[in-house]
Specification:
The chain has 306 residues and is mostly helical. Among the domains are: 112 residues; 75 residues, no CATH class. Helix content is 85%, strand content 0%. It is built from 13 helices and no strands. α4 crosses α6.
Length: 306
């Protein structure tokens, strides 16, 4: 029994180290502020503290090389991976790192096959490789799809935040148009108001459009295609159709902003209703368990007496 517990502890500690290596924790706000302050007062201090160990650099280089090879392999077979690229673009991740993670996690699960076999042997389940191999294969399949689920969840959350900011951005553009600005100037002035990551993405797209000679609405449409925001594509199409009529643009932008806010409110109300229903079900289950707890002694007394 002691050997089985030790083997289980070793397996759990190995999985913990693997998860910490593949998904390192992000530094908190206090550590970020401390690093900024140290960089301000001591230019060499931040550079010295930000250096990684040679082992970490070597592992990162191998992971990057594997990711590049996998990306080239996907491109050679014509796999577009459009939804994954859009999710990676809005989360600020690279395709190479994502592909490397998808390969390394299942491989790590298979590497633990001898450890699982030894664990089953200590439990007295025999030394057959069938059951441990199936267990490792199941874990490999779960680990293969785990990065996709995590990426989808994070991308959906960031898209929701982006849509919320787009509604405010449309109101700002409408107010700038009412003040007598042209459409390009109104778009750039509205994007220069905030410093959040959504406004930075919009401002960068508009600045790049000015450099490359594209129209601002084409840049917004390209940004919508890149990160998977349908509202930006619709906005680009509307601006293309009514680019010469300032009053029509103001009405269209105001109506779009109002519709986005109403849809967001309906989604929030729907989520609140779902959570209320889940809480009601939890309360009913709790009441049922409490009633069973009260009835059980009397029921057992009746059963014993009969």
């Amino acid at each position: 029994m002691t050997g089985a517990l030790l083997a289980g502890a070793v397996v759990g500690f190995g999985l913990y180290l693997l998860s910490r290596a593949l998904f390192p924790s992000r530094p908190g706000l206090a550590s970020r502020l401390a690093s900024l302050d140290s960089a301000r007062f001591d230019g060499q201090g931040a550079a010295g503290s930000g250096r990684l160990s040679p082992t970490t650099d070597r592992v990162g280089a191998l992971r990057a090389r594997l990711g590049r090879q996998l990306a080239l392999w996907c491109d050679a077979r014509g796999w577009q991976l459009r939804s994954i690229r859009a999710d990676l673009a809005i989360t600020g991740r690279s395709l190479e790192g994502f592909l490397a993670t998808k390969v390394l996690l299942p491989t790590a699960a298979l590497v633990f096959t001898p450890v699982v076999v030894a664990y089953f042997a200590l439990l007295g389940a025999g030394v057959s490789y069938a059951v441990p191999l199936w267990v490792c294969l199941l874990f490999s399949a779960a680990f293969f799809f785990f990065p996709d689920m995590q990426l989808k969840q994070e991308a959906e959350s960031r898209r929701q935040d982006f849509r919320h900011v787009v509604g405010a951005f449309l109101d700002l553009v409408s107010m700038n148009l009412a003040g007598g600005r042209g459409v390009p100037e109104a778009l750039m002035a509205a994007a220069s108001v905030g410093d959040g990551w959504t406004m930075l993405r919009i401002r960068d797209a508009l600045s790049n459009a000015r450099i490359t000679g594209r129209t601002p609405w084409e840049a917004l449409g390209g940004l919508g295609d890149e990160i998977g925001i349908a509202e930006l594509r619709d906005l680009a199409g509307a601006l293309t159709l009514v680019a010469d009529d300032g009053a029509q643009i103001r009405k269209s932008l105001t109506a779009r902003a109002a519709s986005m806010r109403s849809r967001e409110m309906s989604e929030i109300e729907g989520k609140a209703g779902e959570r209320s229903q889940s809480m009601l079900v939890a309360q009913l289950l709790f009441c049922a368990a409490f009633m069973i707890f009260l009835i059980y002694p009397a029921l057992m007394r009746i059963v014993v007496s009969t």
